[in-house]
Write a structure and sequence with these properties.
The protein is an alpha/beta fold. Helices cover 45% and strands 16% of the residues. Bound molecules: adenosine monophosphate (AMP).
Length: 199
């Protein structure tokens, strides 16, 4: 039986904070910002004005979305906070930030990024795996950026480090619209599957 597509109010976007990346990566972030706004979906992000973070926030705001940033004090004090967003929450720690971002959003996407992006997307995927939330998670594999990571994950599943029920937890697509469609329609493991897999 097919489930009706999920409706998202807010999607959390994790993405690179580097300003040194090529223009095509910033453009990916702008395309995602506009795609979310075009669907009437608001954006939750790490609250920075730098790199792809600033690009996704600016594009989503310009296209009419509300944008919510959550930034730890330490980064805010370094003047890395985006002052133009709908709401910028300043929290004490990185852990509080990630918790708050996860609470605010109905789904999660990672655009190309580095350590921070990978850490954030893997954490929320682990939370899905353990049944702490039932929110879909996906990565934007723009220009094949995540091909090596997808190959790594496929190998981890082949080697039984990722259980069959969780193999497809992380959605992926090369295009923002396709990724959002797949987050809306993907099936997530049920509680029964989760408890079976844990045995
Ligand atoms: P990275 O992929 O290492 O550039 O880290 C980006 C992710 O980590 C973002 O999704 C943010 O949540 C967080 N982050 C890293 N650096 C910053 C920064 N300078 N300002 C705000 N958030 C950051």
């Amino acid at each position: 039986m097919s489930i009706p597509p999920r409706k998202f109010r807010r999607v959390c976007v994790y993405c690179g904070s580097s300003n040194q990346v090529a223009e095509r990566w910033l453009e990916c972030a702008r395309v995602m910002g506009r795609a979310l706004a075009g669907r009437g979906i608001d954006v939750v992000f790490g609250g920075g004005h730098v790199g792809l973070m600033g690009a996704v926030a600016d594009a989503a705001l310009a296209a009419g979305a509300q944008v919510y940033g959550v930034i730890p004090e330490k980064l805010f004090e370094l003047e890395l906070g985006h002052r133009g967003v709908t709401k910028l929450e300043v929290v004490a720690t990185m852990h509080q930030r990630k918790q708050r971002m996860a609470e605010l959003a109905d789904a999660f996407v990672a655009l190309p990024g580095g350590w921070g992006t990978l850490e954030e997307i893997f954490e929320v995927t682990t939370w899905t795996q353990l049944g702490y939330h039932e929110k879909p998670v996906g990565i934007l594999n723009a220009h094949g950026f995540y091909d090596p990571l997808l190959a790594f994950l496929s190998n981890a599943a082949d080697e039984a480090f990722i259980r069959p029920a969780y193999r497809d937890l992380l959605q992926h697509a090369s295009d923002a619209e396709l990724l959002l469609d797949s987050l809306a329609s993907c099936s997530l493991p049920s509680f029964e599957e989760l408890s079976r897999a844990a045995r």
